Amino acid sequence: VAGLGNYGLRGTRHSVGMAVVDRLARQLAVAEGWQVDRRCCADVALATTRGLELVLLKPRRLMNLNGLSVTSAAEIYHLHPEDIYLVHDDLDKALGKVAIKLGGSARGHNGVRSCITALHSNEMTRLRVGIGRP
């Protein structure tokens, strides 16, 4: 589960993907387990829930380069694009509204575009979190 955003701009609406992954880590009781993984240039926490092993990821790169971190983590943890969930902001959704999308285009989102390009696939599931337009 990759929370897309700009690592240096945490707390902004554009980096809501990271906030969602932080919240998930707290709910799974692994929030104290974040580790910097230099191999994928990201913060990583591992969790298990309902028989599933999860890799939680917060790239330490700019949004436009998040795909490099996601791809490196996928290689390290032997994940396929269809195993990956991208959590990201969506300007076209009202603040706080969420939607799940399987595959498809980036719809103008540079972080998703970066993941599609780096993984050579658009088969990732996306959790789109509405941030509304300014």
Please render the helix and strand layout as text.
Layout: E1 2-3, H1 16-27, E2 35-37, E3 42-49, E4 52-59, H2 66-76, E5 85-90, E6 98-102, H3 110-119, E7 125-130
Parallel strand pairs: 1-5, 5-7
Antiparallel strand pairs: 2-3, 3-4, 6-7
If you had to describe this structure to a student in words, what would you say it looks like?
This protein is an alpha/beta fold and 134 residues long. It has a single domain (2-130), classed as Peptidyl-tRNA hydrolase (Rossmann fold). The chain is 25% helix and 28% strand. The protein contains three helices and seven strands; from the N terminus they run E-H-E-E-E-H-E-E-H-E. The chain has helices at 16-27, 66-76, 110-119; strands spanning 2-3, 35-37, 42-49, 52-59, 85-90, 98-102, 125-130. The chain has a four-stranded mixed sheet with strand order 1-5-7-6. A hairpin with a 4-residue loop joins strand 2 and strand 3 (42-49). Belongs to the PTH family. One of its GO terms (molecular function) is tRNA binding. This is peptidyl-tRNA hydrolase.
